[in-house]
Amino acid sequence: MIALTFTDYWFVIIPALYNLLTILISLVEVVIIIRASFKKEKTTFKSSFYQIFAVDTVLRITEAVCFFMNCRMEIAPMFHEYFASLVETYNFWTQLVPILMYYTAFACQWMNLVLTFNRFTVFWMKAKYAVFWKRHTLRITIIALVIPLAPTIPMWTECFAIYLDEWNFVSWDHKIHPAWSNSDSAMAMFVPSAFPALVMNLWMTAKLVGSSSVAAKATRSDKRLWVLTLSMFLFNLLTTTVQFLFNIEIVAANYLLVMHAQTIFFDLTVLLPSWVILWTSASFRSEVVFVTTFGKVHLAESEFLQPTAHSMGSVSAGTALI
Asked: For this UniProt entry, which segments traverse the membrane (predicted)?
């Protein structure tokens, strides 16, 4: 057996480390938001934005795990013998992992639209924002989770298997490529969700950057949450665009280069929001630090919403001490 060095599998070890760290932080964030929903006090983490973000975080965690199993482990030298022993394997599990990866990717696109719409209504509905989302958060979230099932359910009729490809490499993909590719499904999901998100992001950019009156009245938290949703949209755009490039024949000659680019954008799209959310709210950041240090460190900041002269009149616009 050939002795392996770090350079043989750094591309798996390093992503595994930052994926694991981000997943742990993400789980802490979800727990904090869920815990806040059971409290009687009106905390900022009970707002609709954080509730939607928690759902999106669970989807992103699942997507990251499935992507690691489906796209990274199979090419890692350390797992070569294991996957080689599974060659020509086709069962429920070889179907579930890639299908779940695609579903969560599609669902995250729609959840990004919901998060963008949430930020848009802060400035558009003003005082009616909190009332609207109190009534419709669950309904809108369920719709965003159901729509991606349309291109996902037919995937169960496709053959996802672990097999040796034409280059004699272990692959975990379609054994028989369907006429309608998953890249096509990704674009079919992205276009109807991205267009309204783009319009709303442009509108908010014009209001927050071009309108001094709106920018002056908006809280720092609202501005930063807008930056978060905007960055999520842009990285989703880049990741989906790279995914669609696989449908272009000329890309086949640069397959590995495009695959590396997709992996980088994928990590940024899936993992970065869990870190950026810490920048948007000092009180949320304080809670995460408190939990991750087992109560040894707690920033001297209040978790509770304080009455502020919010320009939009929203009492629950995700405001927090920054």
From this structure: 12-36, 90-117, 138-164, 184-204, 225-246, 252-278
Q: What is the pLDDT of residue 107?
A: 96
* Structure-token match 């490039």, residue found: 245
With respect to residue 84, please indicate whether it lies within any of the assigned structural domains. yes
- Would you say residue 46 lies in a domain? yes
Q: Is the pTM of this model over 0.70?
A: yes
Q: How far apart are CA 118 and CA 200, in angstroms?
A: 10
**Residue 118 CA to its chain's centroid (Å):** 16
89 - beta bridge partners?
162
Q: What token pair was written down for 45?
A: 């983490």
How far CA 29 is from CA of 88, 94, 247, 275, in Å, comes to 40, 30, 37, 10
Structure tokens, 169: 């490499």
Q: Using an 8 Å Cβ cutoff, are 76 and 86 in contact? A: no
| Burial of 212 (C-beta count, 10 Å sphere; 0-12/13-18/19+) | exposed
**Banded pLDDT at 202 (limits 50, 70, 90):** very high
pLDDT beyond 80 at 55: yes
Would you say residue 2 lies in a domain? Answer: no
Tokens 């028989």 locate to 176
Instruction: Return d(Cα 167, Cα 210) in angstroms, integer.
Output: 54
Q: Is the pLDDT of residue 263 over 90?
A: no
What is the extent of the structural domain holding 149?
Answer: 9-292
Q: What confidence category does residue 246 fall into, taking pLDDT thresholds of 50, 70 and 90?
A: confident
Domain with residue 273: its CATH number is 1.20.1070.10
Assess if residue 179 is contained within a domain.
Answer: yes
Helix (H, G, I), strand (E, B) or coil at 90: coil
Residue 7 vs residues 61, 78, 240, 259: alpha-carbon distances, Å: 27, 12, 30, 19
Domain count, the chain: 1
Q: What percent of the chain has pLDDT over 70?
A: 82
| Closest residue by Cα to residue 290 from 274, 278, 305 | 278
